[in-house]
Structure formats: structure tokens, C-alpha cells
Design a protein that fits this description.
Distance between the termini: 31 Å
Shape: globular
Radius of gyration: 25 Å
Number of helices: 14
Strand order of the largest sheet: 1-2-4-3
Helix content: 40-55%
Number of strands: 4
Order of helices and strands: HHHHHHHHHHEHEHEHEH
Oligomer: single chain
Length: 367
């Protein structure tokens, strides 16, 4: 396509090219109106004339397969177990709490616990054990619950207690919200939000890995759908790695040579068994990414979020360079480092409160 455009510029006069552009724009608008009005035409268009969704569709299908394998304890993180245990937690905190609930998935939760008990993450398995134990203690007798309870008791506790808990010997079960007094004031947080800006120019010195790890630890406290946390942070801070990885995203030409580190936030579709959830990796990954950047800022480390467009050639290059699994999708890249004092930062005027805030039902859209 780019070769055709270059040839047309050489052979056609400027006025002819402008006429062709306007004709293209008119036909594009007509096509979009037709696709907007007809689901049949949309299916035909994307089946035969556009491969825009092919890569995501393949990742979703592979993710479904990986989800089945994952449910059986194939990975250290069991996404089915995480969702099932979180659903049990929500049942345990209901007011009033039912004596019988979770009949449709508690047995599957116990099976997933069995599969991950010796192969899964110690933190995850301990959490699953403690919540399941609390569930069986709180629920009344029922054939489904009784059978699951017996299976759970046969499985036994995890072979190793976890280390990453609020209190070393605490049970990892729902707890009272307690005093809701904020840890920091709104004024302090707003000051942090105002201070954090997309910084593209950095000092030529490395960022200590323990500070980056601190930011990741804060990032994983971000909310995610059913606590599945379907993402990972791939961090590159060696010069050769940075040089290769920073060539992958667009929009960094001219300043990517000065990155002290670059991070790829990668979503994993194996966390979900349904097509309807295919976009959650981007939501949960972005929530974690924002917490990550705020945590960097509190430690004096600047950052810049970098957009990742779905372009076939770049998708293929990223899959090779990052060794991505077939169900993994890039959410975004983030550069980070100590800001260069003389480096400029775009003002980036933000939308006003009135532009982004609406109470109640908005007026209907024209589309």
C-alpha cells in the first residue's frame, strides 16, 4: 500500500491526488454507515475484507484452551481457582449471609485447589485453603456442600504456608473494613496526580531494581475482575534489551535512545473462559499500570505510558522479541527513569470537570 501511494504521488498531479483522497473519504463514510446499520454486513466485512480482529480472535481461542489446562494446575497461577475463591469471599461477606450458596461451583473450586495444592503459588494456595475452610465452617449441611467438604478435608492444608500476608500467622479470609480514615489526604494525592506527567527525557543512570519492584508490589494491589490479575510486568533495564524492545512501539522515535528502562504490561487471556471477557485484560492491566506509575512517582522516578496499536508487523515483532505466548496481548509499554532537569514536558491540558463528569442518565447518543 505504501509503494502504491509513493507511485501515485510521482505519476499524478497534486490536484488529482486531492480528488482521489476526497473520493476515498466519501466512500469510507458510506461504508461505515452501511456497517453501522447492518450486523450481516459487519460480519461479511470482517470475515472477508478485514483481518483487524484476527490476532485478538486467535489469542482468545488459545486463551480458552490455556484456561482449561490452567484450571488443572498447569501454571503457578490458577485463574479458575482465583475467580472461584473470590466468589466464595463475596458470598461470605453478604448481609445477610445465606446458609447455603455456591452450589454450582464449590466442588469445582475444591478440585482446582487439589490441582494447585502442590504446584501452585504458595500465596494463592494458602488463600484458597483459608477461604474454603471458612466457607465450609459457615455453610449448612447440603449434599453438594457435604461432598465438597469431605473432598477438601481429604486434600488437606497446603504443604507450605505463604509469606506474603498482612500478618504472618493471619488467616487469609474476609475481614472487617474498620476505620475508613484515609491513609493520605486528598490534597496529597491530588498533588501526586498533578506532579505525575509523561516524562520522555531521563538522566543517564540506572533505576535500582528494588524501587521498580516496590512499584510492582503496589500495582498488584489494584482491583481486577474477580481478583484474577491477568497480567504481568516484563521489565527491561539492560542496554541491549532496552535498545531492541524500545523499537517495538510507535511514537517513541527521537527519544527512546535515552530510556533507562522500559516495561511491557502484558495481559493473559487464559484467565477467562468466555469471549465476552476478552477486553478485561486491558482494563485490569491499565488499572495496575496506573498504580505502577504513581508508585514510581512517589520514589522520585518518572515514567511515560506508551500506546500499543494493533499492527500486524509490530505484533509479530513483539511476540518474537518478548517471547509471548499465543494468548498474551500487550496492554501498553511504559518507559521509566530519573527525569532530566533540562528535559521539557508537554503541558497536556486536561479536560475540565464539566466535560468528564455527569450525574444521572445522560442524553441519548446519535449513533
Amino acid at each position: 500500500m505504501s509503494k502504491f501511494k509513493s507511485l501515485a504521488r510521482r505519476l499524478l498531479p497534486g490536484q488529482a491526488i486531492e480528488h482521489l483522497k476526497r473520493a476515498r473519504d466519501r466512500s469510507s463514510v458510506q461504508l461505515l454507515r452501511a456497517l453501522t446499520a447492518s450486523s450481516f454486513l459487519r460480519r461479511v466485512h470482517f470475515a472477508f475484507f478485514s483481518d483487524a480482529f484476527d490476532r485478538e480472535a486467535r489469542a482468545v481461542v488459545v486463551g480458552h484452551l490455556r484456561h482449561v489446562e490452567n484450571r488443572q494446575g498447569a501454571d503457578a497461577t490458577n485463574y479458575f481457582l482465583r475467580r472461584a475463591v473470590h466468589r466464595l469471599e463475596k458470598g461470605l461477606i453478604m448481609q445477610p449471609r445465606k446458609d447455603v450458596f455456591a452450589l454450582d461451583y464449590v466442588d469445582d473450586a475444591v478440585v482446582a485447589y487439589e490441582c494447585s495444592r502442590t504446584t501452585g503459588s504458595a500465596d494463592e494456595v494458602c488463600w484458597a485453603h483459608d477461604v474454603l475452610a471458612a466457607y465450609f465452617e459457615a455453610t449448612a449441611s447440603h449434599p453438594v456442600i457435604d461432598a465438597a467438604r469431605q473432598r477438601f478435608e481429604r486434600a488437606g492444608p497446603p504443604p507450605v504456608r505463604c509469606e506474603n500476608v498482612r500478618q504472618t500467622d493471619a488467616e487469609l479470609v474476609p475481614f472487617a473494613a474498620g476505620d475508613s480514615a484515609p491513609a493520605i489526604s486528598y490534597e496529597d494525592f491530588h498533588s501526586l496526580a498533578m506532579q505525575r506527567r509523561s516524562v520522555r527525557w531521563y538522566q543517564p543512570r540506572p533505576v535500582p531494581r528494588d524501587l521498580i519492584d516496590n512499584a510492582v508490589l503496589s500495582a498488584v494491589q489494584s482491583p481486577s475482575a474477580c481478583n484474577r490479575q491477568p497480567y504481568r510486568f516484563m521489565i527491561f533495564d539492560e542496554p541491549d534489551d532496552i535498545a531492541r524492545v524500545s523499537e517495538l512501539p510507535m511514537g517513541v522515535a527521537g527519544f527512546n535512545h535515552n530510556f533507562p528502562a522500559i516495561v511491557a504490561v502484558v495481559g493473559q487471556l487464559r484467565a477467562y473462559p468466555h469471549v465476552r471477557d476478552r477486553h478485561v485484560i486491558y482494563i485490569d492491566g491499565a488499572l495496575a499500570a496506573m498504580s505502577f506509575m504513581f508508585a514510581l512517582q512517589t520514589q522520585g522516578i518518572s515514567s511515560c505510558s506508551i500506546n500499543w496499536p494493533d499492527i500486524p508487523e509490530r505484533e509479530a515483532a513483539a511476540a518474537r522479541e518478548l517471547n509471548l505466548a499465543a494468548d498474551e496481548r500487550i496492554v501498553m509499554f511504559i518507559s521509566l527513569g530519573y527525569a532530566a532537569g533540562e528535559g521539557m514536558i508537554p503541558f497536556s491540558q486536561k479536560l475540565s470537570l464539566e466535560q468528564v463528569r455527569a450525574y444521572g442518565r445522560p442524553e441519548s447518543s446519535s449513533v
